[in-house]
Amino acid sequence: MKNVLIVEDESLVALEISGFVKEMGYEVVKIVSNALSALEVVENSQVDVVLMDVNIKGDKDGIWCAHEIKKRQYIPIIYISAFSDDETLERAIETNPTSYLIKPFNRKELKVALQIATKRARRKEDIVEEQPKGDILLDSEFSFDSSNLELFCCNENIHLTHREKELLNLLISSKNSVLSFYEIENAIWPDKETNENTRRALIGRLRSKLNHKFLETVHSLGYRLKI
């Protein structure tokens, strides 16, 4: 059984997350509300996965805490946060998290993130890597099955909606080249008028499921999938 540390300063949210985690068969080592307490638990207990809020009590936030944890030992970190602005995401990505879930999240998203984190936790240098399920490799963790339009991370299936599948397939088909806003809208919504907010929302959801990797915004032109 894997041990999970929850770093969350809202007690009701922390209890809700704890309930989800236990239902999924994981052990909750402790719930803490600040960075220093989290570091103390990591140093004195067996922790396999950390669920980390960004905005926590004290003068050090969750991203700072994640950096400090990474300095001490390798522990997969899943961010759970209401913040999704570019600056916060860029800082979070520097810690190489397993996932970044935006509140409110659903149980399925958390379950998949924990499954991926668990695989990372047991994946040491002497473990033979599994053959990726997708035929297109995005990196050492992500792969895409071009026949069934399915995305995998550490061989766990990442749920995509129909339009998210279409968009990712389109981006992969044009990998490393700019896909214009017009090309995206014409392919995804051929018979329907759309707007910038609709397109951005779809891009945002896909970017989150790709753990904010690969997808680059090319100002005033479109998007590029860099693999």
3D architecture notes:
- The chain is α/β, with parallel strands linked by helices.
- Helices cover 41% and strands 21% of the residues.
- It is built from 8 helices and 12 strands.
- The strands form 3 sheets. A 5-stranded parallel β-sheet has the order 2-1-3-4-5, with helices on both faces. Strands 6-7-8-9 form a 4-stranded antiparallel β-sheet.
- Helix 2 packs parallel to helix 3 (62-72) and helix 6 (162-173) packs across helix 8 (196-209).
Task: Give the SSE map.
Elements: E1 3-7, H1 11-23, E2 27-32, H2 35-44, E3 49-52, H3 62-72, E4 77-81, H4 86-93, E5 99-102, H5 107-122, E6 136-137, E7 142-145, E8 150-153, E9 156-158, H6 162-173, E10 179-180, H7 181-188, H8 196-209, E11 215-218, E12 222-225
Helix pairs in contact: 2-3, 6-8
Give structural attributes:
227 residues, alpha/beta, Rossmann fold, Arc Repressor Mutant, subunit A, 2 domains, 5-stranded parallel beta sheet, 4-stranded antiparallel beta sheet, 8 helices, 21% strand, globular
Structural class estimated from helices and strands: alpha/beta
Strand content: 15-25%
CATH class category name of the largest domain: Alpha Beta
Distance between the termini: 35 Å
Annotated CATH topology of the largest domain: Rossmann fold
Number of strands: 12
Report on the biggest sheet: 5 strands, parallel
Integer average pLDDT:
90
- Mass-distribution shape: globular
Number of domains: 2
Please work out how many helical segments DSSP would assign.
8
Level-2 CATH architecture of the largest domain = 3-Layer(aba) Sandwich
Order of helices and strands: EHEHEHEHEHEEEEHEHHEE
Radius of gyration, taken over Cα atoms and rounded to an integer in Å: 18 Å
- Could you estimate the helical fraction of the residues in percent? 40-55%
Query: What is the H level of CATH, i.e. the homologous superfamily of the largest domain?
Result: Response regulator
